[in-house]
Design goal:
Layout: H1 2-8, E1 23-24, E2 27-28, E3 50-55, H2 62-75, E4 80-84, H3 90-98, H4 104-128, E5 132-136, H5 139-148, H6 153-160, E6 168-173, H7 176-184, H8 191-195, H9 198-213, E7 219-223, H10 229-242
Parallel strand pairs: 3-5, 3-6, 4-5, 6-7
Antiparallel strand pairs: 1-2
Helix pairs in contact: 2-10, 5-6, 5-9
């Protein structure tokens, strides 16, 4: 099945990831392979801090995981800033308020504009101060949700081509059955949450993973099956240890 292939697949990472895939308690690091340079490779942020993106389909536990990871890092003495997309800026709030009526290209452009403002006004300053920044959603969400909204991946990337890569992006995985059960418990679902099935989102995240891997992004897949939030955070911390954090 596509979801199982996404879970098993090792795709190219960047030079700081281990050269060979290995397993530890059900998670795996992403193997490194050299890839040809591409014209649309964005420059990384110049920073003293660590920038972490937490991604995955709706209902997988991104917000809970970001908060739990932040707690664990703070307990070890790190200064941590947690943020989300759409951002808390005026534009981000407008996107949240109009998401049911703003669609397609208009929404994709608004989300990209909010992302650039988010980086400039919140993420980059926190990183420059030496903080670890954890973002609940990043560009991967555009590569999935805007496709559910009818746009091709190349157009979405055109709007986001200058977005700097995170230090490490985590893709959380759970089964479609569990995702569907969690979404059914929500009192309200956004238009895009209701637009695609868990199976569709998992498949599109697989494609987003491959797309960004070809552009040198550091990424790791995290299997959340059978884990509580602390267990998921522990797996993320193990990957961060491999980066020397």
């Amino acid at each position: 099945m596509l979801a199982e292939r996404f879970l098993r697949q090792g795709l190219p990472g960047r030079r700081h990831l281990p050269a060979t895939a290995h397993r530890r308690g059900g998670h795996r690091a992403v193997p490194h392979h050299r890839t040809a340079p591409v014209a649309d490779h964005p420059a990384p942020l110049m920073t003293n801090g660590l920038f972490i993106a937490v991604e995955g389909p709706n209902g997988v536990g991104k917000t809970t995981t970001a908060a739990r990871l932040a707690d664990r890092l703070r307990a070890s003495g790190s200064a941590v800033h947690v943020t989300t997309e759409p951002s808390g800026t005026a534009l981000g709030k407008l996107i949240r308020a109009t998401e049911s009526s703003l669609t397609g290209r208009a929404l994709a452009l608004a989300v990209a504009a909010d992302r650039y403002a988010h980086i400039e006004t919140e993420i980059a300053p926190a990183l420059a101060a030496g903080m670890t920044v954890i973002s609940d959603r990043y560009v991967q969400s555009s590569l999935v949700l805007q496709r559910l909204d009818g746009l091709p991946v190349r157009e979405i990337w055109h709007y986001n081509a200058h977005v700097p890569p995170a230090s490490l992006s985590f893709y959380l995985y759970h089964t479609p059955q569990v995702l569907r059960q969690r979404l059914d418990l929500r009192a309200r679902r956004s238009r895009l949450e209701a637009a695609g099935s868990p199976e569709q989102e998992i498949a599109l995240y697989e494609e987003a993973f491959a797309f960004l891997a070809a552009r040198g992004w550091r990424q790791a897949l995290i299997n959340c099956r059978g884990l509580d939030p602390d267990g998921v955070a522990t797996r993320l911390l193990r990957h961060l240890e491999q980066l020397g954090t």
